[in-house]
Amino acid sequence: MTILVPSFIDNGIVGGHWLNLGVTMADAPDRPNTAHWPPIIYAATLVIAWTMQRVWPLPSLVPQTVAMIAWLILFVGLGIGVVALVHFRRVGTPFDPTAPARVLATGGIYRYSRNPMYLAAIICLIAIGLIAHWTWLILFVPVALMALIKLAIEREEAYLDRRFGGDYLAYRARVRRWI
User: What's the gap between Cα 121 and its chain centre?
Assistant: First the structure.
């Protein structure tokens, strides 16, 4: 049986046609997603916010002193992301959101958050908005967050449930999605 998927939904391609992936159900590996949604969401958020700030500028929400403190927030976000990536590497599972998980990461920073990489990215987007005085970016972060939850996190959670079963359910029960 050939898998037919709407290209605009699962492959991130705008259009209304169906795309024949040319693989059978038996050949298709179980994986969390078919598109690299997180970087697409982050890039789209930055580009849209930058464009809106140029076309319809909004005043800054914060004074310059707060923008300076935002550099610290940016480095905290980057630090969380690096620690999460290093932990994935240490336990031997890929950080590619489309690759099958080899191991359920539950130690290190993952004892406190099930999604520290996504948390780090959201923190960084907010910090960039504060540093650059892009009010539009700060306003678009909740939209990016909802897109991230729907297009990446919920799919990954369903995948991890299929892949790791009771181990993932126990982990999910004791560790919050964010913090």
Answer: 7
Long-range contacts of 76-81 (CB under 8 A, 24+ apart): 76/123, 77/120, 77/121, 77/122, 77/123, 77/124, 77/127, 78/120, 78/124, 79/120, 80/109, 80/116, 80/117, 80/119, 80/120, 80/123, 81/116, 81/117, 81/120, 81/121, 81/124
Amino acid type, 171? Y
Q: 122-138: per-residue pLDDT in tens? A: 999 999 999 999 999 99
In three-state secondary structure terms, 10 is helix
For residue 20, the surrounding DSSP H or E stretch is strand 18-24
Q: Which residue in 90, 105, 81 sits closest to 171, CA to CA? A: 105
Helix (H/G/I), strand (E/B), else coil: 178: coil
**DSSP 8-class letter at 150:** I
DSSP 152: I
Question: Structure pTM?
Answer: 0.82
Confidence band, pLDDT 50/70/90 cuts, at residue 9: very low
The secondary element (H helix, E strand) that includes residue 23 is strand 18-24
* pLDDT tens, residue by residue, 44-63: 999 999 999 999 999 998 88
Torsion sign, CA atoms 116, 76, 81, 92: negative
Q: How far apart are CA 99 and CA 80, in angstroms?
A: 22
